[in-house]
Design a protein that fits this description.
This protein has eight helices and five strands, in the order H-H-H-E-E-H-E-H-H-H-E-E-H. By secondary structure, it is mainly alpha-helical. Helix 6 crosses helix 7 and helix 7 packs across helix 8.
């Protein structure tokens, strides 16, 4: 009995026929072509056909010149423009990131207080009135939107710099408010790039 078990233990496994290896290789090759080639290409072609603007990055041109994407925030330092959210990534879409500082981090709290007081002095309001999205960077660092409140608190400054009536600039902000997705997802928001482009159509920036 022991001899039989030992003999069974040392019996080499049966080799897979050559046709089995070929079938496996063919199946793997077909799956690679389908999943790594045809499937993603079909998705790209379908997106380009159904949503051409979004498939190319939702880019915006003005007078034939590329000015940005509605999906990527930018830095607007001219006081005649509305500003977006701060960025811990320098508004660089290739290194999207937040500050990685916890809410209780003293460095983050000090930075937030400094920013709030600086904006309050610029907008001539109490620091407690500054919306949080003008103080805190987004997780990606390239959020293109701000809240309607963050846009409205900038109306007086923008109107003064551009020499426009505040009511006209405020109406422009209201017109640019985007509702929640499907009416329930997210909050009302304003795309800063679109708002500033619409602002340019009203009048020149007050900065040379």
């Amino acid at each position: 009995m022991t001899a039989k078990l030992q003999a069974h233990r040392h019996t080499p496994p049966a080799e897979l026929p050559a046709t089995g290896w070929l079938s496996s290789m063919r199946a793997a090759l077909v799956l690679i072509l389908l999943c790594g080639g045809l499937y993603p290409l079909t998705g790209v072609w379908s997106a380009a056909g159904l949503f051409p603007h979004q498939a190319t990055g939702s880019l915006i041109e003005r007078d034939g010149v590329l000015v940005g994407s509605v999906l990527v925030g930018q830095s607007f330092v001219d006081p005649g423009y509305f500003r977006g959210r701060p960025s811990a990534a320098g508004y660089d879409p290739f290194r999207v990131a937040g500050s990685n500082l916890s809410p209780g981090n003293p460095q983050l709290r000090a930075r937030a207080e400094t920013t709030a007081h600086a904006l309050a002095a610029e907008y001539a309001v109490d620091p407690t009135r500054i919306p949080v999205d003008l103080i805190a960077a987004s997780g990606s660092g390239i959020d293109p939107h701000i809240s309607p409140e963050a846009a409205r608190i900038q109306v007086a400054r923008v109107a003064e710099v551009r020499g426009l009536p505040q009511a006209q600039v405020a109406a422009l902000v209201t017109a640019q408010v985007e509702p929640p997705l499907l009416g329930v997802l997210g909050q009302p928001r304003v795309n800063v790039l679109r708002l500033n482009l619409a602002l340019d159509a009203l009048g020149p920036s007050g900065t040379p």
